[in-house]
UniProtKB/TrEMBL annotation, chains A, B, C, D:
Residues 130-256 form the Mandelate racemase/muconate lactonizing enzyme C-terminal domain. PROSITE patterns: MR_MLE_1, MR_MLE_2. Transmembrane segments: none annotated. Gene3D superfamilies: Enolase-like C-terminal domain (3.20.20.120), Enolase-like, N-terminal domain (3.30.390.10). This is D-galactonate dehydratase family protein. It comes from the Bacteria. GO terms for biological process: amino acid catabolic process; carbohydrate catabolic process. GO terms for molecular function: magnesium ion binding; mannonate dehydratase activity. It comes from Devosia nanyangense. Belongs to the mandelate racemase/muconate lactonizing enzyme family. GalD subfamily.
Length: 401, 401, 401, 401
């Protein structure tokens, strides 16, 4: 009586950006779509899926999502990490897509039904200097956004995160190298937000991404210096391999903190959450083991007053955005959703029923997660290797990007 | 397009025992059944539901389980506690029953699919003295049980938990009063399990319930004295309002510990779980806010190597057992399920598709949780007030039952 | 020689608001009055008392208050929670009323005699905007109040706690739904108190109730932003199921904190008190198990420099206010008493000898707690179901009210 | 003047087992060999290297090992995990091989020179029952081994870790599924070591691997039960994603504990080490980022009295063993080295100058790490997909292998 998986295919395509997509088909004719994109390391995940894991799916009951998740997580022996957990996520989301289709329900219904009708989102505004950054904010505000992440160039630095300098190199050949000076950054950033508040008043939600570049004490300094400007959050002020390091930041400032777009499992955040060291968790469905696992992360967060703030750069495919919006429709402790429009070509390959309106994102009502994938169209956009940036201090030292 | 609730009725009946049942009906013709029985305080829950909460359900979308849960939990203002959380559980289980029926799936499929085919269960064996208790164990073992909770009378005491003395009074008029002497109990209990291991060998799982009567240090003494007999667990050695009190027990013995049949929310167990002070959590679906909330408890448990060991006395109606077995079918960190057969008359009122076989319980495959309720039959078994026991020390002091 | 209880009746009436009153009569002709009102869930408590507990009181010695308390608390098996503890409180206060009458003494004498002659109280001043709120404060100050809780509408929100918007719905049919935006609140509230201090100078005690709506970190932000205005306290900035969460608030601000009107037992506050995370405890006699239990809470508070600040909204009947003022007359670590006048009709049903004068409340000298109840008058005011408000974020998410 | 990398090739071959080997060639004619084998997920690492990372090495100075390590670790953005850290390890070891060859020195000289002449090693002895296991121990002892890991079949289980049952399936098609029963294991294991000590006396070092299958409390029980037999260590009694979980084990037993063959970075062990929760750390050069990173792990260990006990199953290629023995030659806090002979065919592909003698392993004196790789020979042994086992409880639940 139960259904069974008859095919599991990985397709790597590049409609504007590289995406790794998993298609699972069942004997009863259902198709599930999962995203398994790991920006800059796409083919390793594709190999993990195609060469090692996909063959194991054939013949299994697609309804046994939990068992398959545990089979892949525990059964790999070598646990966690971005490649493994992205591969598992691709399968998990495809299976939830199938289950929701089998139930004839939009995915959020299986999670517990709608807790809200629309999801607040934030977008990006960048500029080479403060004036340019604020103009970018103004443009986003006119487009209806109520929350904007602002990044501005720092005088003396050529290229920093979120702000694209000129002549930056060829990311298809090798990572572009940015430069970094923490002192300059710490001096400059409060000016950016002082100017932003002056121009836009108190209501617009302002966010900022420090992109892993500070020590905990420097992050505490940054946090304090930004408190007068009431940011929605400061993201990733420090790397988080050492979760206890965040105690230092937290002890010194009440600036809201967000973390976790690079996290792959609940263990990457367990102490950060349970010691209430952060306010928003950004672990995504695609990189943290899928809906099955991220639901556990979000539920742990809820116990400790932490809200979701999912990563949503456009290197996560429309499939991940679709799943995220169904998740956001349900999850009681929703915070905010990052939103960056996908490349125009992606619309030739992916179809979706989620939408943007007035500073919010809306999930659709189609059965499943509502995102489709056109394999023939995908074939028109072959994979092209591309790298994320790296970062060096001005003396040449490798630093965190 | 969405369905809506058109009726929510509470039925209190007593087919052998008192049960409070909630029936929710929807415009599309679906019916959900929930258990809201709180042994000895049934009518307070029935009033909570019928007089205050049921009217609020009419017209709502039954698919919005999470929103309704939050509405009832946060919206009550006065939170937690057995009456409130049992009422919420009754509604929550009925709504999950409806959602699974709407999806045409057995409930465990909505939770993530089957992680196992059968659920290990334990039953009860009691005796006025050790010999009688062991005979009772032998009878259960012959019936196929692989795990048996053993309670024996303590010399010098008339009536203790799990062992019914004679002339015990009329529980319909007032609580029967047992007597208690911790020293006698601590001296006697190791003898019970020494004899049990001698008679039944090392394989049979033996459990024991200390029923809240010890201090943490006394519990540590008990635990140490039982270590040679390798119990599956010692249940409720101390009351748990002060969760930190269990640190003392835990620091002194490795005897496995179970706790929580009286818990109503995750907050009752948060420290017990996160400090790994227990091995099994017994919070039930009916008393801890339903599937929506117990899923969160179980997931927290999993992070800390705690397994489920749901309460399953027969004052929980067949509906709760049905829901528990669907839950157990899915939950990755399943431990064991308590099982006590319901009164024969209950079969005239409730219908169920779960079953017992060879020391295990099996969930059914009907859509929903698989338990039905016959309102007309229920009317033949009117409610009759009955009390749980109380307990006094031999000097007359009120003690924990 | 000992007296015995011959009757225990529950009366639910609605002289302006709903009240649940317990009347206990003894063979010797004494009558004790207890309040068992749980706003919005009144009938569940009434059922708990009338259907389950009252019958057990008949024949007992009313002087055995401690034994009866333990009998009801431990003997219920299912412990704690608002319904249970309110029911126990109703009985406990009635028994203390009887005992004091038997002694021919005002209740405070049995607690240890008077520690003070009058109890500082605070009242409420609300306004749709800051100007209106401050006018309300001025009116209260003219009436002699030395401490005023101030709540003001937040621009952009229709209806928030303490401030009644227009056309908000029918609380007799269902909870009125307020809306909430934490960012707007955090921006606006400091302005309210800046204006209040400007207008009223430094001496008037200003209080504020955040009504459970913030995360700990947001509460820390609020506390810091209010420090310049030297509030008497900030009440309930966050929910308190997770007591450890308050460490975050406390580590970041010295603003005095009050908590606990929803608490039902000492366990709800144990960590908050012993870690000195709060300054005032608001657990009330009616919802936290009566005089017997609240005395223990207050005594624990004293060890850790925490003072009483009893809840005193007018959904607590005049009986609770009477008991609270006797308690306040005695308790060494008295802080302040909330005071909101009861509806005029309540005076037709209840009689009391406590009084207000010059910003203080005074307890009476009649034997017992000094509050009487006219059952015939009560019959003129039948119960009418009414709900407390609920609260949603502006995106529709259920939130804490 | 500096050299530069002109080629970086990945070769996947299967001389008896699958191995992933990285060959780096420099302009000056030096060749470095690295192992990047991740058992059961080999091709994902090969893709990570060949498709994403190897191109970035071309043109770099091979002497800049630290910079390249940081470039790959920080520059990947998505950090840690088995695939990433194994890929980095492959490069790191090849670069250290080159540097040592450039210096004309055996690798241990660059680490700080020899601290000892030989490295104590342990090997494996398994048996379907206790008698067979002890015979295997005897055989190993006769071969000179002074330390033996002993695993025996558990009555009632078909196939458990380290003990191969019959007819177990085809690991080339899918993971073989073992079965598991913790109770049976806990009862049986003390008997194994009681018999071993009886037969072999007190001097032989006995080790045991619980292979991640216990909860912390069960591990404490195991540890206590084995204390009389003075084991060298108990390995991996529990999974280690939650490092704090080991506090429970450690608080209850003094049995020496080893952990970490699945670890990929210092962050996986930071709390285990700094809280002294273990005695031996098993993180390997191949899976934990190479010599550059494991040196840091070992140095942290030394601060807290933790010794090395490197994983050394034969799915780590001879390259990893060569590097490990140079590391062991130097590292001050060396503990023991696991040793399992490689398949005979591996000798056709790899050449090495390390050797076994009298219960110890000896590193060679050739420049570099002393292990060579014959690409032409490798071509004769094409990759064949094979899976590690998985494990289920007897009720079907997925469990840790």
């Amino acid at each position: 009586m139960s259904d069974r998986i008859i095919a599991a295919r990985v397709v790597v395509c590049s409609p504007g950006r590289n995406y790794v997509t998993l298609i699972i088909e069942t004997a009863s004719g259902l198709t599930g779509i999962g995203d398994a994109t790991l920006n800059g390391r796409e083919l390793a995940v594709a190999s993990y899926l195609a060469d090692h894991v996909a063959p194991l799916l054939i013949g299994r009951d697609p309804a046994q999502i939990e068992d398959i998740w545990q089979y892949l997580y525990r059964g790999a022996y070598w646990r966690r990490g971005p490649v493994t957990m992205t591969a598992i996520a691709g399968i998990d989301v495809a299976l939830w897509d199938i289950k929701a289709k089998a139930a004839g329900m939009p995915l959020y219904q299986l999670l517990g039904g709608a807790s809200r009708e629309r999801m607040l989102c934030y977008t990006h505004a960048d500029g080479a200097d403060i004036a340019e950054a604020l103009d970018a904010v103004a443009a986003k505000r006119e487009h209806g956004f109520r929350a904007v992440r602002v990044q501005a160039g720092v005088p003396g630095l050529n290229r920093i995160y979120g702000v694209h300098g000129d002549g930056a190199g060829d990311s298809y050949a090798r990572p572009i190298e940015g430069d970094w000076d923490t002192s300059a950054y710490l001096r400059h950033t409060p000016k950016l937000f002082e100017a932003a508040r002056e121009r836009f008043g108190p209501e617009l939600h302002l966010l900022h991404d420090a992109h892993h570049r500070l020590t905990p004490n420097e992050a505490a300094q940054l946090g304090r210096s930004l408190e007068p400007y009431r940011l929605f959050w400061v993201e990733d002020p420090v790397t988080a391999e050492a979760q206890e390091g965040w105690r230092r930041v937290r002890s010194q400032t009440t600036v809201p903190l967000a973390v976790g777009e690079v996290f792959n499992s609940i263990w990457d955040a367990q102490l950060l959450i349970t010691e209430r060291l952060v306010d928003y968790l950004r672990a995504t469905i695609v990189h943290a083991g899928g809906i099955t696992h991220v639901r556990r992360i979000a539920d742990l967060c809820a116990l400790y007053s932490v809200r979701t703030g999912f990563h949503g750069a456009n290197d996560l495919s429309p499939v991940t955005m679709g799943a995220a919006l169904h998740f956001g429709r349900w999850v009681p402790n929703f915070g905010i959703q990052e939103y960056a429009a996908h490349p125009a070509q992606a619309e030739e390959v992916f179809g979706w029923d989620w939408s943007y309106a007035g500073g919010h994102l809306l999930s659709g009502e189609a059965a499943g997660h509502g995102v489709t994938f056109d394999e023939q169209a995908a074939a028109r956009f072959p994979y092209r290797r591309q790298y994320l940036d790296v970062n060096r201090l001005t003396d040449g030292t490798m630093w965190d990007w």
